[in-house]
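Lab intake sheet, docking and co-folding queue.

SAMPLE TYPE: protein with bound small molecule
LIGAND NAME: adenosine-5'-triphosphate
LIGAND FORMAT: SMILES
REQUESTED OUTPUT: full 3D complex as structure tokens
PRIORITY: normal
SUBMITTED BY: R.K., bench team

The fields below were copied directly from the construct record.
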Amino acid sequence: MTIYSKGETLLQVKDLSLIYDNKCILRDINFSIEDIIRPGIQQGQVVSLIGRSGIGKTQLFRTLSGLQKPDRGQILVRESRPWSLRPVHAGDMGVIFQNYYQFGWRTVEQSLMLAAHQNKGLMGREAEAILEYAAQFDLSDVLKRYPRQLSGGQQQRVSIIQQLLKGSDFLLLDEPFSGLDVCVLDKVVNLLLKVSLSHEFKTLIIVSHDIVTTVAISDTVFILGKQDGVEGSTIVRSIDLMERGLAWQPNVQEEKAFGETIREIKACL
Ligand SMILES: Nc1ncnc2c1ncn2[C@@H]1O[C@H](COP(=O)(O)OP(=O)(O)OP(=O)(O)O)[C@@H](O)[C@H]1O
Ligand SMILES: [Mg+2]
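RESULT FIELD (auto-filled):
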């Protein structure tokens, strides 16, 4: 069993509720994400957020990212100097939305450059970083094109790179695997794993209907669902994959316990 421990809190969601037109969409959401510490390994966090269509995953992302104000509750993120937890601001988290949107009048390269300039850690190496990511994501040939000249899958990869270049510790990915063919899917999965290992505080929260792919690269699963007779969705279950020995295993999908965990998750939906 891999040795690990949990350190300081990176994200804390407290009693969050969201209401639209008197209808409760999200209710009493509480969870936190702690820094995972593994001796000798720089290890980020990968969390799957799973739930049926229409349950409120995208709304939770909008709220977590600070784009949507919750009706109740608080979202706190780690501030490094001095160390504290403070309310989230719009822009703290990189969000790759389900319906990714690019500025139509900018080429892919121009959009990526704009993102890279927001990352102080890249100072002077922006162009180089763009070329590296473009090569890894099979996008080298489309850098001079405009979004309308790209396929859906290409646009989606541009969105992912855009957020990676910005360098935020938190990345919220809404359906990052849809519309990708199998070859590109593997590349995106591997790149996300690389990103999660690039810094101790990097935290990826992934929403996907592709439960197997997402859970295979996660350390924790949160299930968003409904409780009988109550309006609004809430976290009905969380599963610690580290405790089960199912995190950070390259061939986890072949393990019996993994198959059982997937069945358990599906039964909650
Ligand atoms: N602006 C809005 N006003 C009122 N209700 C809304 C609004 N936006 C979304 N909703 C409702 O909030 C609920 C949650 O929607 P959300 O988009 O978060 O679902 P989801 O879990 O992301 O689904 P999917 O997996 O299909 O993307 C839905 O019932 C939706 O109809
Ligand atoms: Mg959605």
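REVIEWER NOTE: The first strand starts at residue 5 and ends at 20.
SIGN-OFF: pending second check by T.M.
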